[in-house]
Amino acid sequence: MALEGLAGRLQETLNKLRGKGKVTEEDVTQAMREVRLALLEADVNFKVVKDFVSKVKERAVGQEVLKSLSPGQQVIKVVNEELTQLMGGTQSKLNFAQKPPTIIMMVGLQGAGKTTHTGKLAKYLIKQNKKPLLIAADIYRPAAIKQLQVLGEQLKVPVFEMGNQTSPVEIAKKGIEYAKSEHHDVVLIDTAGRLHIDEELMNELVQIKENLKPQEILLVVDAMTGQDAVNVASTFNENLDITGVILTKLDGDTRGGAALSVKEVTGCPIKFVGLGEKLDAIEPFYPDRMASRILGMGDVLTLIEKAQANVDAEKAKELEKKIRKAEFSFEDFLDQLQQVKQMGPLEDILGMLPGANKVKGLKDLKVDDKQLGRVEAIIRSMTKEEKVNPEVLNASRRRRIANGSGTTIQEVNRLIKQFDDMKKMMKQFSTMTKKGKKKKGFKFPFM
Questions:
Q1: Which of 124, 291, 376, 389 is the residue whose CA sits 20 to 30 A from 61?
Q2: How far apart are CA 219 and CA 108, in angstroms?
Q3: CB-based contact 255:5 (threshold 8 Å)
């Protein structure tokens, strides 16, 4: 999970205050000392930590907190609000031109994932009903143009390129002209990067900026580099006045230094975060949701959005009917498994549930994608009759399924047992809902 090291430390510290009926100034001071250490260990900028702790302490020892009915909860509320403000307060959306095309300039050092995230952002924009064009303006890195073309083919998005013999400024200009003639409403320019910041790189980027006047200059930085990411953001911002940051590899960053420092140090908002290798593994950054996840309060809104984007509503209604009639089959189970897998890593999904970190067995759960693959292989090795009527699965059939799926009989038996237990649970759930009032709202798929 993103920022799990920092999240664990902060939750442990604040849980000591949570249930207290009375909180003293000394309690707050001790808690803030531990919060300060946790943030510094997470590679958060020293000045940011100092200011954050000072603000929280000033509010937490106020009359409205210490004399409230639940002072422990109030302190946590203050920490949540200050964390949210630290990361930008509210979501910072993309700026679109009044008259298309909107020009987005992608900048960053080599190795941060700039070209990949140019493709990811293009896919995100397609989902927003935009018609993007990619411009290959990195003429220095070997295979940079080819990499962008491969991404374009995967996304079915055109890539404008003029080889590596023309200047990046000229390529970008011609690309904009092409975008206008083909009615593209967004242009993403993949610019050159370096292994380090130098004058030549900055001069070239400044020229592109001055000639094209982009609506957005997005800096792509690697979250796992911590303070280095913040320093890179500061330097790029001084030269280019960047409009936003895309933090990559946030799913691999257990510390969180970059996420908590970038906005405060540079004044530039984090607009997107990269959370995996797939082309759809990019999300808008919501400071309030991230703060809630760090403090173990979950992120239900993102969970619902992911489910609505990946779960087939008609299939969900059909599944509900089957559950009520106790007709849930292995085919239904496989269908649900595939839909949940599309939402992202299961441990990340569980991390969005409020209080999941306190549930025994879920806190340290590490879901192996290979295990999910084995489950899928077992079900696919069944005949249609076996999927619908698991009662026919005798010893010889189970042995055949194990051989066909490349698994063991024990794994097949375990899955069948879990499936039986789940059907019993669903039957009980169905009975309960018949007796009680039918609940309205979004229905999350069973897995």
A1: 291
A2: 5
A3: yes
Contacts of 120 (CB under 8 A, 6+ apart): 274, 279, 280, 281, 282
Residue entry with tokens 């007796």: 435
Residue 218 in 3-state DSSP?
A: strand
Percentage of the chain exceeding pLDDT 70: 77
pLDDT band at 340 (very low <50, low <70, confident <90, very high): low
**Three-class DSSP category at 185:** coil
Of the chain, the percentage scoring pLDDT greater than 90 comes to: 31
Contacts (Cβ under 8 Å, ≥6 apart) of 7 = 1, 256, 293, 294, 295, 296, 357
Is-contact 285 250, C-beta < 8 A?
A: no
Asked if 36 and 45 touch (Cβ cutoff 8 Å), the reply is no
262 three-state secondary structure: helix
Q: In what order do the strands lie in the sheet with 270-274?
A: 159-160, 132-136, 186-190, 102-107, 216-222, 244-248, 270-274, 282-284
Contact, 134 vs 105, CB < 8 A? no
What the chain holds in terms of domains, given with CATH numbers, is 4-86 (1.20.120.140), 102-301 (3.40.50.300), 312-435 (1.10.260.30)
pLDDT at 431: 60
Which stretches of 25-141 are DSSP H helices? 25-41, 46-60, 63-66, 71-86, 114-127
How distant is the alpha carbon of residue 52 from its chain centre?
25
Nearest to 109 by CA among 191, 45, 167: 191
Mean pLDDT computed over 408-416: 91
Residues in the chain: 447
Mean pLDDT of 186-193: 93
Non-local (6+) Cβ contacts of 315 within 8 A are 335, 339
How far is residue 171's CA from residue 162's CA, in Å, rounded to a whole number? 6
Strand partners, 105: 189, 217
Q: Which of 328, 329, 365 is nearest to 350 (CA)?
A: 365
Closest CA to 13 of 294, 264, 253: 294
Cα–Cα distance, 331 to 119 (Å, whole number): 34
Q: What share of the chain is helix, strand, coil (3-state, %, to 5)?
A: 60, 10, 30
Give the global pTM. 0.69
